[in-house]
Amino acid sequence: MNKPKVAFICVHNSCRSQMAEALGKKFGGDVFESYSAGTETKPQINQDAVRLMKERYAIDMEATQHSKLLTDLPPIDIVIKMGCNVVCPYLPSRHVEDWGLEDPSGKSDTEFMAIIDQIEVNVKKLAELIKNDQLNLF
After folding, report:
1. Is residue 136 included in any domain, yes or no?
2. Which of 115, 113, 89 is closest to 100 using CA atoms?
3. 64-to-67, 72, 91, 102 alpha-carbon distances in Å
4. In terms of residue numbers, what domain contains 60?
5. How many domains does the chain have?
6. Using one digit for the tens of pLDDT, what is the confidence trace for 115-131?
7. Has residue 24 been placed in a domain?
8. Which intervals hold domain Phosphotyrosine protein phosphatase I (predicted)?
9. Which of 38, 77, 83, 116 has its CA 20 to 30 A from that of 90?
10. pTM for the whole thing?
């Protein structure tokens, strides 16, 4: 069976969704394919996110990821909205969740790490739901 494709989306695809894509690959790569995108792009991934993900997980997001538009994605099975505080982008899928995460951009490392911790917990939970076929995707 093909692994479901998960898209982590937000407006700029430069911080939370990028971290979620990276953590999805790390903690859910055996269960789902991990993507991220937004309705707008930024020239680079948030540098605090890049630094903290390198420090904590030894993941270099800049080596394998870049800011992408929703139109750059393949057909998606699961959409995870990061919590846009505006109207979140729409992307057709079989399952949608909104994680309602605050944008840590410009905040302290402690606040950033709290969001990273929550993304890790959510990604692991999502992987378990998929593994146990609890989302009725197919």
Report:
1. no
2. 115
3. 11, 15, 23, 24
4. 5-131
5. 1
6. 999 999 999 999 999 99
7. yes
8. 4-129
9. 116
10. 0.95
